[in-house]
Amino acid sequence: MRALYTAEVTAHGGREGHVRYSDGILDTDLRVPKEMGGPGGRGTNPEQLFAAGYAACFESALRAVARSQKKPLQETSITARVTLNLTDDKRYLLGVELRGRLEGLAEADALALMRAAHDVCPYSRATRGNIEVRLLAESDPVAVA
Q1: Virtual CA dihedral for 53, 58, 63, 68, nearest 10 degrees?
Q2: Helix, strand, coil distribution of the chain in percent, nearest 5
Q3: pTM reported for the whole predicted model
Q4: Rg of the chain over CA atoms, in angstroms?
Q5: Are strands 132-138 and 92-102 parallel, antiparallel or unpaired?
Q6: Tell me: the pLDDT tens digits for 20-39?
Q7: Nearest 5°: phi and psi at 13?
Q8: d(Cα 111, Cα 105) in Å, to the nearest integer?
Q9: How far apart are CA 31 and CA 127, in angstroms?
Q10: 105 phi and psi, to 5 degrees?
């Protein structure tokens, strides 16, 4: 295995703290959302950061799969929803929903591409068997007509 890139982030203060990337591009406060009993306000949280990374990585994997299958993609977006769940036995678990909008493709074709991307996306591979990931494709009325 050959390392292609290593991201380095330092966190201090937990969910009410601060994160800073080693290159300084991101240097931001963390806040517990109001929905979790926190103050909310300006700042991000671990679930938002994970959702951003997963959505971007998944869309890249989707584009790679589409290229390999010679299926040109038009306007495409992936929306990731990361949910922090609390089980009855007081354990915290993440859940992810990846919603794809693939312009020019019918829902079934979009979902098939998303499933193939889920097999190769590094985030999907890292979380497989650890968290539930739901794949949803939004229907494109143009492709269905």
Answers
A1: 130
A2: 35, 30, 35
A3: 0.91
A4: 17
A5: parallel
A6: 999 999 999 999 999 999 99
A7: 95, 10
A8: 9
A9: 24
A10: -120, 140
